[in-house]
Amino acid sequence: MSGPPFIIGAWKGKGKVLPKGIEYLESSTFLLLREEPAYVINWQQFTKHAETLKPMHAENGFLKILPKPEDSHVKKAELMLSHPFSVNEYYKTAHFDFDKNIFECVADTEDCFQRGPAAGGKPATGSRRIYKLEDDKLIYDMYLRTEGSDEFVHHLHCEMMKVSE
Hints:
The protein is mostly beta strands and about 160 residues long. Helices cover about 0% and strands about 65% of the residues.
């Protein structure tokens, strides 16, 4: 496999919850745990309100980039994330493009979401994430679909700079 994946390292930046217009500060760390037979990356992300600095969100999990297909720079991937509001997400449709420095993933079936007894709010029925490296910035967009809707809504946009390997 080509490597290392562009996402590796510690990143900091600013984003926005688009439907509400709320700006946030983000710190994300993607730590390479293993390279063979697949890349396994520990995924940690924390946000806080840009003005009040109150914590807003966190997620923890693992990204696995598989060595398949062998003859392509675009590899199959899986992303599993846990959230403190008692929800787990499994992005089983995912690919990591080593040449274009893009990671895209989709969770869009019922088995992609697990809700604990304390989970509140409207259940998510779909989530799509796109991460890309542009001019040394890690840029991501997240789209969300909730119960009762067929459409994905552009939910988050964030731009971060690498602060350490």
